[in-house]
Amino acid sequence: MIPTLIVALITFIAITVSIIFFPSVKLKRQKIGTYWVIALIGAILLLLFRLVPIKEIWTTLTSDSSINPLKILVLFLSMTFLSIFLDEVGLFHYLARKAVKVAKGNQFSLFIIFYLLTAVLTVFTSNDIVVLTLTPFICFFCKNTKINPIPYLVGEFAAANTWSMMLIIGNPTNIYLATSAGINFVEYFKVMSLPTLAAGIVQLLLIILIFYRKLKKPLEPQEDTFEIQSKVDLAVGVVHLLVCLVFLIISSYIHVEMYMISAICAGSLLIYNIIMRLCTKKHWRYVVDSIQRLPWELIPFVLSMFVIVVALEYQGIAQKMGEFLGSNHTEWTYGASSFVVANIINNIPMSILYSTLPNGLSGVAYYKAVYASIIGSNIGAFLTPIGALAGIMFTDITGKFDVNYGFKQFIKYGLLISVPTIGVALLIIMFLI
After folding, report:
1. What residues form DSSP beta bridges with 416?
2. What whole-number percentage of the chain has pLDDT above 70?
């Protein structure tokens, strides 16, 4: 037990240190994230020293259960492909430009529109995609108009990691925790819609209160020259996403697993693009860039963290952690602890770990623990940049645009906004379930 705990703790600490001080390294021209390499080393050490049997890992990886990490990765990557393709054909950029036009020089109106746009896009795509696509636009736009980008960046990042709670597909942590508990698309939405709505409203009011003076300054309107290059590709991409969402909603009724639905839709979109490019001899940029932009590093990271968590469970450590959290007021014990732990080891490994902790619970206490952990994994993401991969990407993008938004500022606004937001969400879970 002790050697397993030591390897796990060293791996978690090393991942945290790498995210803060050296999130990536360059090998020749290739940029490689250090976090997944460290996780992989930790997993290999556990297997080499036989602290977890390979048979135990293989059995879980080949199981037909909904918590199979391979199925979850397929679901997330295929949904991500659909979203990235829509970004490549210009949907998100087009909507952002329209938002600027509608604001008509009013910063306050622009902020509200951007927040709502972020919320809607996050609900139907995912938080990572929205952060990747809207953050550069906000930085570029604010630099050109000479306005303070911080209110918009804080609003965007907070909204992306709160409204991602609404649907099961909004965050890979939702997918893992919900499927581990056997919660389907509809059941998830029924419970999480109200906490997400309440948390989003409270959060928006807090951000407006914090940045009200900055948002009162006038905004100089910019020329809008952006146009959608291929409306046909855009229409096809939107149809695929909508069809995918519809079938995900009814997946439990037609007895088809969610990963199969998303994989079929992503595969269909890919086949359409291949056929169209071969027939019309159009450029392959949309397809190639969409595939290249997929978060491939997530595969070794999730699988490595999965090995570590299986080892913790095999050695009985996860069970002891579950016993420590107890069976009373689980919405608060699991919600608060997952919120903190996500900012120590990142929310993806936190979710893999927390999928096993409530196994000793039953009934209402069990479901409160699961939903509270989901809330902690999402809202915890904007307490510090360590909380989620989206935070790492966010700080990397803002740094490239020379935006003065360092670690201290991130935590300052994170504390002011995330603590009341998670409090409201957990309070609703307490009375709702």
Report:
1. none
2. 97
Q: Are 54 and 8 in contact (CB under 8 A)?
A: no
Q: What does DSSP assign to residue 25?
A: E
Asked if residue 357 lies in contact with residue 322, where contact means CB atoms within 8 angstroms, the answer is yes
Whole-model pTM: value is: 0.84
Could you tell me the two tokens for 363?
Answer: 């009934």
Residue 336, CA distances (Å) to 30, 367, 378, 380 in order = 38, 15, 12, 9
Judged on CB neighbours under 10 Å (0-12, 13-18, 19+), 200 is buried
Cβ–Cβ under 8 Å, residues 215 and 107: yes
What's the length of the chain? 433
Residues 99-153 have pLDDT tens digits of: 777 777 688 888 999 999 999 999 988 888 888 888 888 887 887 777 889 999 9
Q: What residues contact residue 26 under an 8 Å CB cut-off, 6+ apart?
A: 32
Residue 106 per-residue DSSP state: B
pLDDT value, residue 67: 62
pLDDT, tens only, 367-411: 999 999 999 999 999 998 888 878 877 887 887 778 888 788 899
DSSP tag of 169:
G
Whether the CB-CB separation of 24 and 34 falls below 8 Å is answered with yes
Q: Give the span between the Cα atoms of 124 and 141, in whole angstroms.
A: 24
User: Which residue from 25, 24, 56, 27 is spatially nearest to 43, judged by alpha carbons?
Assistant: 56
Helical (H) or strand (E) element with 91 = helix 91-103
CA 277 to chain centre: 32
* 3-state SS, residue 51: coil
CA distance 311 to 390: 27
Residues 75 and 31 sit within 8 Å (Cβ to Cβ): no
